[in-house]
Amino acid sequence: MDKQKKLMIVLPVLILIMAFVWVPVMRGSGAKKSKKNMGRAVSGGLSAGSSRDLIALGQSNERKKAKTSYADWGRNPFILSGSPKASVLEGIMWDANFPKAIINGNIFGVGDETGSGVIVDITPTSVTIRNAATEKIYSLGP
Question: If both were cysteines, with which of 52, 77, 93, 127 could 101 make a disulfide (CB 3.0 to 4.6 Å apart)?
Fold first, then answer.
């Protein structure tokens, strides 16, 4: 087959493909307008009328029903539940003047607040944390 015959076959096929792709785009197959707002058109520029239309659209009571709810999951995923992560003493950097403790990956000194309370004392082998109700001693090692 020579080039002209191939072109005569390929060109109409490409035109058909382009027609199927571009016709829906040109017709505006985007978001459908609701019956209530059928007469309104939101323009690209923001004039006083179009901004009122946008505000009215945002305040519309026509909301679609949610497909699922957190009740389907058994819990609300946006509310933290349960107790906070337990404090884990990972290490102690001992210095007689400024001792530091590594708790849950963060470095704290005496008087610093952790998630579970305030550090009261740091020794070479333990850390004492006091909260409103109790005082707990965390030790290194088994």
Answer: 127
Residue 124 per-residue DSSP state: S
Nearest C-alpha neighbor of 84 from the set 119, 54, 57, 116: 116
Task: Report long-range pairs for 126-135 (Cβ below 8 Å, ≥24 apart).
Answer: 126/89, 127/89, 127/92, 127/101, 127/103, 129/87
Q: Whats the size of the chain, residue-wise?
A: 142
Q: Where are the alpha helices (DSSP H) in the chain?
A: 3-27, 48-58, 70-73
Cβ neighbors of 115 (< 8 A, separation 6 or more) are: 84, 85, 87, 104
Indicate the pTM of the whole model: 0.41
List average pLDDT for each run of 10 residues in the chain, which is 142 residues long.
84 88 75 52 51 60 60 64 70 93 92 89 93 90 71
In whole angstroms, what is the distance from residue 131 CA to residue 83 CA?
Answer: 15
Number of Cβ atoms within 10 Å of the Cβ of 120: 14
